[in-house]
Every structure is written in C-alpha cells, then in structure tokens.
Amino acid sequence: MPEEYREEQQKIEPDLTAVYTGSQALEKAPEIYGVATGIEGLDDLFYIVESVKNRLEKKSLEGIPSYSVMNITGVSDTGKSLMVEQFTVYRASKGDKVAFITVESPANFVVASLRLRAIAMGLNFDEFQDNIILIDAASSTRIRENIPELLATLSYVIKTYKVKFTIVDSITGLFENKEMMARAVVRRMYNYMKKWYQTALFVSQKRSGHEELTAEAAGGYAVGHIVDGTMVLAKELIDSIYKARLYKKELGEIVRLFRIDGCRMSGHDTKTHFLEITDTGLVKIGEPIGG
User: Fold this and answer.
1) Residue 20 vs residues 26, 27, 187, 196: alpha-carbon distances, Å
2) Per DSSP, what are the bridge partners of residue 273?
3) Considering all CA atoms of the chain, what is the largest pairwise distance in Å, rounded to the nearest integer?
4) Residue 3 pLDDT greater than 70, yes or no
5) Is pLDDT larger for residue 77 or for residue 90?
6) 231 to each of 30, 100, 215, how far by Cα in Å?
C-alpha cells in the first residue's frame, strides 16, 4: 500500500509542538557572540558578516560561536585534550562555571593536568579551581555506560552550579565497543547541549587509518555530521623532500596541522594552519600553510 494512503488510513496526528513560524522560532533564538578560548591564534578564525553602509564586511567573532557544539578530532598526540583543558582553565579563570565530563582519565588525574595548564598560562589555579566541576565517567561505569544517567548527573551539575560550558573528553569513549550506536549517542548528547543552551566541546578520536585532515572520527562520520562544527588536528612526519619544501621543515621532523571543517553558526577561516604544542604544554594555532 502506498505510504500516503497508509498514513491517511491510520489517521496519524501531526506533532504541532514541532511547528514554528519564523518569528516564533526567533523568540527562542539566543544572540550569538564570540566565546574567547584562551588558545592563541584560534579566536580570530571565526567571523560574522555585518552590513556597513550598504556593504557587507567580515567582523571577527573573537572566539568560537556561543551555544555551539564543536567537535575536536584527530589521532593521538595532536593536542585535542590540551585544547579543551586550555579552554576550561581560561573560562573558569574568567568566573564561568565549566562542567568537564572526563571519560578517559579519572578526575584526580585530569585536575592535575588542568592545574599544569593554568601554570603554563600564568594563572593561579587556586583562585578558580572550584569553577570547574568534574564528572568522572572514567571511574563510574554506571554513568559511562548509561547515557540517561550521565545526562541526569549533568543536569544536576548545570542547575546546581549554573554551568554555561560543557566539555566531553571524549565523546568516543561513550560508545566504545558499540560503534553502531555512535550516531544515537552523539545525537542525544548534541540535543541535550542545545536544550540547556550550553557552549560545548566534544573531543573525538580518529583511527590511524583515517585521513589526517578529514573530520572523520571513530564511529564513522557520525560526530561531524551532527555537531555544529569540527576542528581537525593532524600531525605529519616530514619524510620527503616535497614535504620538507611544502612545510619548510627538516626531514625527520613532525609538523602539526589545524583546520576548521565547517561551522554552521558562523563564518570561519578555511585554510590549513600550522599548530604548535609548546614545551609547557599549550596549544597555539599558527600561520596558514603558504603564509
């Protein structure tokens, strides 16, 4: 039986709670502004377009778009966790409350790393350490393996501490050994962040077989397709004269790269940039390849 006739016979009722006019939707739309990240070289890569004297001009957002859910992906040792730790420390030092869901390492190890990041950034961790609320999904099988319980815990944290920013390191750890569930897990986490008006960063892992500068993560393209934007981190061994000339590096060196792979909430730089991890463990976004 054709679908249209079956639908008519079953008298399926429309879901009117999902229908909005443009003005009704705008009433609930938040004003988008830039959220400074504390990561050198990153904030000016996002922009909005404004009409000035009948001309369109690009204006730096000076941060990632507020209320966005951004995916940070790459293979190991590219700086993903360092980036979210810098962001967490920086926002907390500004007086914001940040929920940090740690899925890979227990909370006591993560907080030690956050303190090191603060020292490297010249900040006194003792002054704002309680602005960071850690949810230890690495140690609690109960919340790592059960998304409703994880979200119930996060709801408590958001309401109790007035949290505006949420970090998940890593989202991939929430569907370990069950990658067929990846889209469902990521979609549920994404919808939750939107419901609570969170600006969120999800760290997701890549497999060594994935192309370096694609948004693909473990679990397929699930994460990149659902979230608002993706930042791709990569590293490459200089093993040919061609690469040495391209990157202006010596043979045998490692070069790290950074690229924004789409952002539906604002304009963004589309070039591939050099990325540096300093001796003190801070991530910096450098000049684009080729200048």
Assistant:
1) 9, 10, 22, 19
2) 258, 288
3) 71
4) no
5) 90
6) 23, 19, 8
State which amino acid sits at residue 65.
Answer: P
Q: What percent of the chain has pLDDT above 70?
A: 95
pLDDT grade for 35, boundaries at 50, 70 and 90: very high
Burial class of residue 27 in the structure, from the number of CB atoms within 10 Å of its CB (0-12 exposed, 13-18 middle, 19+ buried): exposed
Token representation of residue 226: 């659902």
Residue length, the chain?
291
273, 257 Cβ separation under 8 angstroms: yes
How much is the pTM?
0.91
Q: What region, left, alpha or beta, does residue 54 occupy, with left being phi > 0 and alpha being psi -120 to 50 degrees?
A: left
Please compute the mean of the pLDDT values over residues 203-209 and round it to a whole number: 79
Residue 3 three-state SS: helix
* Whether the Cβ atoms of residue 73 and residue 29 lie closer than 8 Å to each other: no
**How many Å apart are CA 196 and CA 179, to the nearest integer?**
26
Kindly report, residue by residue over 100-148, the tens digit of the pLDDT: 999 999 999 999 999 999 999 999 999 999 999 999 999 999 999 999 9
> Which amino acid is present at 112?
A
Q: Is the peptide bond before 170 cis (omega within 30 degrees of 0)?
A: yes
Cα–Cα dist 93/105, whole Å:
23
With CA atoms as reference, report the closest residue to 272 among 245, 238, 247, 242: 247
Contacts of 216 (CB under 8 A, 6+ apart): 73, 206, 210, 224
